[in-house]
Write a structure and sequence with these properties.
- The protein is α/β, with parallel strands linked by helices.
- The protein is built from seven helices and 13 strands.
- A five-stranded parallel sheet has the order 3-2-4-1-5, sandwiched between helices.
- Helix 6 packs parallel to helix 7.
Length: 257
C-alpha cells in the first residue's frame, strides 16, 4: 500500500526483514535499507541487518516502545528516506498496521511503502517439509494485546475446522501457561497422532533447531518452546515421512502418481 503526496521529500518504508538471515531477505528489502537515510527498529532486528548499515542514522528501541517508534518514523519521513524494520513480514504481527494507524491518527500525509518479507510460518514450514499446503490458521498466544478469551475461541474454531494451525509467540517468561492451555484445547478436536513441528530460530544463522513430534507428545518438548519458536500442527491428513511432515493437498484423490 502506498500513498503519493506531492509536498513531501521523504518516504517511509516498513520493511519485513524475514527470519533473520540476510540471504532470506527480498531484494527490495536490501535495496531500501541500503538507500535509507534513517533506520529505526527493535534492537534485535537491527542486529540482524547490521551488515547492510553503513552511513545511515540508526535509532534503536525495545519491545514495548512500538507506538513511539512509529510516531518517530512518520515524523522523520517528511524529509528523509526512513526504514522501519519489522521481523518476518511487515504485515503479519509486524509494524505495518501500527504505522498506518498512527499516520491516520495524526493525519500526516507521508508516502508509505510496505515491503513484505518471509514470515516465521513460511520459514518454519520449509524446514519441516510440506506441512502447510492447504487451508491454515495462524494464531498468536500472546495475550498482551488480545484477551485470552478471544485467543481461546480462535483455537477452538481452527481445531474444529481441521485447519493446519501455526502458533506464534507460544511462551515467554511472564506468560508460560498459555501454550499448555492451547494444546489442551486443540487436543479436544484432534487425535494424538497428528504431526507437530517445533522450529526455533527458523533460518537464522545461530540457534536453529527443528523437532518433529506428535500432538500427544508435544508437551514433552516444552523446554524447546519460547518466543523464538514457531509451532505447526498438522490436520487429520498430515503425516510424518522420515524427519519431515507432509500434508497432502488432495492430488492423490484425483491422480495416479
Amino acid at each position: 500500500m502506498s500513498q503519493s503526496p506531492s509536498h513531501v521529500n521523504g518516504k517511509l518504508y516498513v520493511v519485513g526483514i524475514g527470519p533473520g538471515s540476510l540471504e532470506h531477505m527480498t531484494l527490495r528489502a536490501h535495496t531500501v535499507i541500503k538507500e535509507a537515510d534513517i533506520i529505526l527498529g527493535n534492537g534485535t532486528y537491527l542486529d540482524q541487518i547490521k551488515d547492510l548499515v553503513s552511513t545511515q542514522q540508526v535509532f534503536r528501541s525495545s519491545m514495548g516502545h512500538e507506538v513511539e517508534r512509529a510516531k518517530k518514523a512518520i515524523d522523520l519521513a517528511v524529509d528523509n528516506k526512513v526504514v522501519m524494520v519489522s521481523g518476518g513480514d511487515s504485515n503479519i504481527y509486524g509494524m505495518a498496521g501500527l504505522v498506518l494507524e498512527v499516520a491516520r491518527q495524526v493525519d500526516l500525509s507521508v508516502d508509505i511503502e510496505i515491503v513484505p518479507g518471509i514470515t516465521a510460518l513460511s520459514a518454519a514450514a520449509s524446514l519441516l517439509g510440506a506441512p502447510v499446503v492447504t487451508d491454515f490458521a495462524v494464531i498468536s498466544l500472546s495475550d498482551l494485546l488480545t484477551p485470552w478469551e478471544v485467543i481461546e475461541k480462535r483455537l477452538h474454531a481452527a481445531a474444529e475446522a481441521d485447519m493446519i494451525i501455526g502458533i506464534y509467540n507460544p511462551k515467554s517468561r511472564q506468560r508460560n501457561t498459555n501454550f499448555q492451555k492451547a494444546i489442551k484445547i486443540i487436543r479436544r478436536s484432534r487425535v494424538d497422532t497428528v504431526p507437530v513441528g517445533i522450529v526455533r530460530n527458523a533460518l537464522r544463522t545461530e540457534g536453529e533447531s527443528v523437532t518433529v513430534t506428535t500432538l500427544g507428545n508435544i508437551l514433552d518438548h516444552d523446554d524447546e518452546v519460547d518466543m523464538r519458536t514457531t509451532i505447526i500442527i498438522g490436520n487429520s491428513e498430515s503425516g510424518i515421512w522420515g524427519s519431515r511432515i507432509i500434508t497432502p493437498r488432495g492430488y492423490h484423490k484425483k491422480y495416479d502418481y
